[in-house]
Specification:
The structure is a single chain. By secondary structure, the chain is mostly helical. The chain folds into three domains: about 130 residues, Rossmann fold; about 120 residues, Serine Threonine Protein Phosphatase 5, Tetratricopeptide repeat, CATH 1.25.40.80; about 180 residues, DNA Cyclobutane Dipyrimidine Photolyase, subunit A, domain 3, CATH 1.10.579. Helix content is about 50%, strand content about 5%. The longest helix has 22 residues. The protein is globular and about 80 Å long. The protein starts with a helix and ends with a helix. The structure holds a DNA duplex.
DNA sequence: TTTTGAGTTGTTCGA
DNA sequence: GTCGAACAACTCAAA
């Protein structure tokens, strides 16, 4: 249609939605005419939470995938670097674009920046529209009876289920029309997202960033995993989870696509109408992600400060060498160390183990949750400000619907319960691989001849426990006593 | 406005 | 070994 090809192009500002399917902004723009897709890297506008090292690895590869897909469709991805507003205005001038569309972000710094960008673009005579591409429900759509935000998950979940079903995902545009003026672009390599030293070697064996990788991960999940999800998701030695978190963070796939795929698979596979237990549990987990965004949107200060502010008055430890030992997986508690090594090697940690290492950091070592959040931010490929903040505050006991402060995970019991054969421990702690159960869960209690036979010298190959859990627990309950009367 | 029932993921202790 | 209670009140959400 000559009409369409003569209209001015629309810029699609890509951020955490690196896909072409179910992409409301891309669909909107392509329906109007030519499309200029752009990704802009500019850490200074991220409010101190610019993507960490592992996230940058993911971003690099996800951009590669997106760029190839957009080129196939007909309008290559433009890569730029610079303040968002200035970069968008430059690009509009260079391509004759009449406006900019994007999918919303919900981090406090992003909201402030996007609001300012939208107003400024309109002042310049451009159109500016935002869409929901990253959530099932907008954080302001789900409300309590009196119109406020939720602070407890279960009623939030009920409200989600009672709300209008999230719309069916959008199809990717069949083709894209490029702008007449082909704008200049950096190469993805120019962004310097990949590490200089090769700590990312193993990442390639565990992950395939991008839209195709996400689709494959989802189909494996639906075929082999979701039915047993309710139980298996807690077993770190098996593939019992969806492994979609990094794809969801970067928007390789959208939550609506996941939601509807799970529903469809569950209805087809299960008995008439009744959703499988696994599917139900998984949809609930997807809504935990929504709840984290809900809380972040309504309580933006929580990225820095405990939601229950009296927790700021606990006598937290400043022991930097203890933090280092935790980070490097040398605490002497195998389940804790296995998790932190899995994180270091693969950029990801099993959810059950995240709770265990989180409890250990905040309640055995009494180190502030924020230190754990910062480490996760740098090392996780799925680092997400809403989920990371929420998860850490939950485990520390200071967040929304949090674990009570006296709930302190026992790393040995957890290990024995969720990794009974010690398979997960052996996978990540080769120095203990020859130690049998039950000793691998608590090597310091193993008889000397058992240790000798397994080739383990405690304090050499593997450290002795850095704290005694029972003592640490008492110390922490004591330190948390300030919470009792200090509240409110 | 007041009341009421409920609240992701645990641990420990004593019967 | 198994079971229930205590842990600590408090806040939330809805009636």
């Amino acid at each position: 249609m000559p009409e369409t090809s003569s209209t001015a192009p629309t810029i699609v500002w890509y951020r955490q939605d690196l896909r072409i399917g179910d992409h409301p902004a891309l669909s909107d723009a392509s329906a109007r005419g030519p499309v200029v897709p752009v990704y802009i890297l500019w850490d200074e506008e991220e409010g101190g939470w610019a993507p960490g090292s592992a996230s940058r690895w993911w971003l690099h590869h996800s951009l590669k995938s997106l760029s190839a897909d957009l080129a196939d469709k007909g309008s290559p991805l433009v890569i730029r670097r610079g303040p968002a507003l200035k970069t968008l205005l430059d690009l509009a001038r260079q391509t004759g674009a009449s406006g900019v569309v994007w999918n919303r972000r919900y981090e406090p710094a992003a909201i402030a920046r996007d609001t300012a960008v939208k107003a400024a673009l309109r002042r310049e005579g451009l159109t500016a529209e935002s869409h929901n591409g990253s959530l099932l429900f907008e954080p302001w759509e789900i409300k309590t009876g009196s119109g406020g935000p939720f602070k407890v998950f279960t009623p939030f979940w009920r409200a989600c289920r009672a709300a209008t079903e999230p719309p069916a995902p959008l199809k990717a545009p069949r083709t894209l029309t490029p702008p007449r003026q082909r704008p200049s672009s950096l190469r993805i390599e120019d962004l310097g997202l990949l590490p200089r030293i090769g700590w990312d070697k193993e990442f390639y064996e565990h992950w395939k960033p991008g839209e195709a990788g996400a689709a494959r991960e989802l189909s494996t999940f639906l075929k082999n995993v979701v039915d047993g999800y309710a139980v298996q998701r807690d077993v770190p030695a098996v593939r019992g989870t969806s492994r979609l978190s990094p794809h969801l963070h970067w928007g390789d796939i959208g939550p609506r696509q996941v939601w509807h795929a799970v529903l469809a698979a569950s209805v087809n596979g299960g008995r008439a109408g009744a959703m499988g237990k696994g599917a139900e549990t998984y949809l609930k987990e997807l809504c935990w992600r929504e709840f984290a965004y809900h809380v972040l949107y309504h309580q933006p200060r929580t990225v820095d400060v405990s939601l229950r502010e009296e927790f700021e008055h606990v006598a937290w430890s400043k022991d930097r060498s203890a933090l280092k030992r935790w980070q490097s997986g040398r605490t002497g508690y195998p389940i804790v160390d296995a998790g932190l090594r899995e994180l270091w090697v693969t950029g990801w940690m099993h959810n059950r183990v995240r709770m265990i290492v989180g409890s250990f950091l905040t309640k055995d070592l009494l180190i502030p949750w924020r230190k754990g959040a910062e480490w996760f931010w740098d090392t996780l490929v799925d680092a997400d400000l809403a989920s990371n903040t929420f998860g850490w505050q939950w485990v520390a006991g200071c967040g929304a619907d949090a674990a009570p402060y006296f709930r302190i995970f026992n790393p040995v019991l957890q290990s024995e319960r969720f990794d009974p054969q010690g398979e997960y421990l052996r996978r990540w702690l080769p120095e203990l691989a020859r130690l049998g159960t039950p000793w691998i869960h608590r090597p310091w209690e193993a008889p000397p001849e058992v240790l000798r036979a397994a080739g383990v010298r405690l304090g050499e190959e593997y450290p002795l426990p850095m704290v005694d859990h029972a003592e640490a627990r008492e110390r922490t309950l004591e330190a948390f006593k300030v919470l009792k009367s200090a509240g409110r």
